[in-house]
Specification:
This protein has 452 residues and is α+β, with helices and mostly antiparallel strands. Helices cover 37% and strands 21% of the residues.
Length: 452
């Protein structure tokens, strides 16, 4: 097991289990037996971690070992959705199921086949982050669909380039920064000037290391505070990808910019309605470090960094907010930050648990949420003959973070989902329901010619 994977394994907390959760819904009923057979063939037989247990105590560090008692029937469950069998009922059931931790005495994944959803079926897939990152697991999950297992999947999006220096150099830089915490007090290591001394590889990279340490923690708010056990989910209606693209083109922005700006506006309204006046909150944004054309490796694993993106929740004008989001995302596209962050994570996995816990608390205090954006297949897919209608994949929130936002596109539509800590937000569905009006407001501004 790599040290980065080990870091995710040890990051579990009762308030934030390190599980990637995915919900898929289908236009027809799924055959649970056919789904189980497909999981055995495409998941268990191809990728060893799905029939292995993590051993955290061997002398050479954590490793995956075969589970002698593996039984796929203990991982695939069949349940019926309660009345009224609609999206509200599915959100309630998913929220209840994801509150139950996985059994660490078994391989760290589970699937629930859910009957009676709007005349079809749904499926909840849960996998531990130690197995792989969210982009890789989304690709693995979509190899389950009908057809050749490697013909379909999602692209591994790069949120910025990793040039001119090799990724390995940047990862090593991050490892040195975090590894220093083992030998010196963390308060000293966290000082920006000390990180600059550790870097010694160029002004730009020293500045990135300083950013990790010097960026102030996000304030307590209606989105950030003490966490409880359990999470809840909500998601938007499918949004036409072409419409979002046209909005972006009107303002010289990307689809990602438009959706991030809409999410930022919804969150800003939520904060102001609860008396929180903030200029910005920060999001951890996963940054893919794999080559876009890379095939799915048998060993899976984690290979991504995290970018820290400020969301201007204090800007109420939809046009001004979009232009500011566009400016900020453009500024990080060529950053080395993601590779350095991966190196920090890898080094953390090799530190004592107490040091890793302090590092996690230190870095996650800088943000309020995780936001992932995964472009899925454009062509329609099916599983065991049931047409796939929609998908969402949520990354876990680590440390003190209490919200994960998922943006997933499929078949010409994009869906935005919220996974939140129950203590912070009792029901995230109003946030998701507010997204279409936010985009419509931006469309009206474009129609008025309010483009700069």
């Amino acid at each position: 097991m790599s040290s980065a994977d080990a870091a995710w394994l040890r990051m579990d907390r009762p308030t934030n289990p390190m599980l990637i959760n995915a919900v898929l819904w289908f236009e027809a009923a799924l055959d649970p037996g056919a789904v189980r057979d497909r999981l055995q063939e495409r998941l268990v037989d191809r990728f060893p971690q799905f029939s292995e247990l993590p051993n955290t105590s061997p002398p050479r560090g954590p490793r995956w070992e075969a589970d002698p008692n593996f039984d796929i029937g203990l991982h695939v469950h069949h349940v019926a959705l309660p009345a009224p069998h609609d999206e509200g009922a599915l959100r309630e059931l998913v929220s209840d199921l994801i509150a139950v931790p996985l059994d660490h005495a078994r391989p760290l994944w589970s699937v629930h086949v859910i009957d009676d959803f709007r005349g079809g079926s749904a499926m909840l897939v849960r996998m531990h982050h130690a197995i792989a990152d969210g982009i890789m697991l989304a690709r693995v999950m979509l190899t389950l669909v009908d057809g050749p297992p490697d013909a379909l999947g999602v692209k591994a999006p790069a949120h910025g380039s990793i040039v001119p220096r090799p990724v390995s150099d940047l990862v090593s830089l991050g490892r040195r920064a975090a590894g220093a915490a083992v030998h010196e007090t963390f308060e000293t290591v966290a000082h920006p000037r000390h990180l600059e001394q550790i870097a010694r590889t160029g002004v730009q990279d020293a500045g990135i290391l300083a950013k990790f340490a010097a960026n102030p923690s996000d304030r307590r708010s209606a989105l950030r505070g003490d966490l409880g056990v359990g999470q809840r989910v909500g998601w938007s209606p499918p949004l036409a990808l072409d419409d979002v693209h046209d909005l972006g083109r009107a303002f010289g922005a990307t689809i990602n910019d438009v959706l991030l700006s809409a999410v930022t506006g919804v969150l800003g309204d939520h904060l102001r309605a609860r008396g929180d006046v903030l200029d910005e909150v920060h999001a951890m944004v996963p940054f893919n470090l794999r080559a876009l054309e890379e095939t799915i490796p048998r060993e899976l694993g984690n290979r991504f960094g995290l970018l820290l993106l400020g969301l201007p929740v204090g800007i109420e004008s939809p046009v001004d907010r979009l232009l500011e989001v566009r400016r900020r995302t453009a500024a990080i596209k060529d950053s080395h930050e993601g590779a350095i962050a991966y190196g920090i994570l890898a080094a953390m996995g090799a530190t004592p648990s107490a040091v890793e816990a302090r590092l996690i608390d230190f870095f996650t205090a800088k943000a309020t949420m995780v936001i992932t954006n995964v472009p899925g297949p454009r062509e329609p897919l099916a599983l065991a003959g049931a047409p796939l209608e929609g998908v969402l994949v949520w990354a876990p929130s680590s440390g003190s973070l209490g919200m994960s936002v998922s943006i997933f596109s499929y078949r010409g539509q994009v869906t935005v989902g919220f996974l939140v800590n129950r203590r912070l937000i009792g029901d995230p569905q109003p946030l998701a329901d507010a997204l279409p009006p936010a985009l419509e407001e931006l469309g009206r501004a474009a129609a008025r010619g309010a483009v700069r």
